[in-house]
Amino acid sequence: MSAEEPLFRVVRGVPTAEELAALVGAIVLRSRPAVAPAPVTTSAWARSARPAGAALRAGPGGWCSAGLPR
């Protein structure tokens, strides 16, 4: 492929400059390798606020299990 040869061409219609820019952006985005998201980590400060080993319960009275001892 030479430097003068286009990477793609429009075969039907007359796209505007904005439509061509959107197409090029989509092609560039799809051609990049997918990057795995960084794992979510909880800070030591946030972990220190949680009772050790306490499981949170959903439902009536569940708010009590969030911070009160059993």
Please tell me about this protein's structure:
The chain is mainly α and 70 residues long. The chain has a domain of 33 residues. The longest helix is centred in the middle third of the chain and has 15 residues. It is elongated and about 70 Å long.
Radius of gyration: 27 Å
Mean pLDDT: 78
Given helix and strand content, the structural type is mainly alpha
| Poorly predicted ranges | none
Question: What's the count of strands?
Answer: 0
Globular, elongated, flat, extended or rod-shaped: what is the shape? Answer: elongated
Distance between the termini: 71 Å
Please report which band the strand proportion falls in: under 5%, 5-15%, 15-25%, 25-35%, 35-45% or over 45%.
under 5%
Give the secondary structure arrangement, pairings included.
Blueprint: H1 17-31, H2 44-48
